[in-house]
Structures are given as structure tokens and as C-alpha cells.
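Exercise 3.2. Students should predict the tertiary structure of the chain below and write it as C-alpha cells, then compare their answer with the key that follows.

Predict this chain's 3D structure.
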Amino acid sequence: MDKKEALKKGALQPAPKVLVTCRNNKGEDNALAVGYCGNCSYAPPMVMVGIVPSRYSYEMIKESGCFVVNLVDESYREEFEYLGKVSKRDCDKLKEKNIRLGEGKVVNAPILSDCPVNIECTVVDSIMTGSHEMFIGKVEYVHGNGDIVDENGCIDFSKINFL
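Answer key:
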């Protein structure tokens, strides 16, 4: 098969669509779509999310030291697209779109109640990698919808219709 040069940006695809939620020290909540996210350690469990410093949520995560990764399924497409396009600088987008929030069990950040999996993280490190700062988060607690979590606590990802 012939090979052609492809774009370097976003070369590692597909990846799950995620929304990251956070809260600043004044109690203000926000959510943003994040294109760079993945596992980076299994002992201890850690994930990383890449956020551009100009994003509204960037300073919120720097200040609070925590965030939640919310995995998005097809039923949440409209909300995902809205939260990815609209900035908190322009309006209270969570209120405007009637986004249902729950409370984290371990970290001081909201979870998106309508997402099938929510991963609470505490920032343990970060590194600038060019356009993004990669926040390394230690996984503190994982919420999963009851119909996708088995008796051993394992998530059956095949039951999620990812975007």
C-alpha cells in the first residue's frame, strides 16, 4: 500500500471526546472540551490533560490543583459542542445550557452528571509542551454509571457509545 504524508497535528487519533470540569477558589465552576487527554501511569493511576494557557479554565486548574475528566457519549453531543465553542468569559455557559452538575467525592470540582464516566484528579505535576500545558492528574476517584460497572468495579467501555 502506498503511504502519503499526513498532518502531524492530532496524529494520534481516534481518542475519546472529553470535557474537563473545574472549580476555582471562589466556587466558580466551568467545563471545557479538551483534545489532548490520556492515561500516563497505572501505578499510581494518572491521566494527563492538555490545556492552552489562554483558556478560561487554565487558571482555575492552576489555582485549585484539581480537575475532573468526563467521558462523553453520543447522547451528550449537543452539550459537548456548545461547551467546546463557548467561553466562560462570555457567559455562564453551564447555566445557559442547563448542565447538570454533581459534586466530586474527593476533589473540589464538579462532575457532569449526564456523562457515563467521571474521573476525579489531583494535579501532581505539569509541563509546557508547546501550545499546551499538560496537567498530570493522580486519579482519586472514578464514577461510572451503574449499567457499565461490573461487580469488580471494572468499566465495560464497549457499552459506551463514544462521540
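Discussion points: The chain has one domain: 18-159. The CA atoms of residues 65 and 123 lie 5 Å apart.
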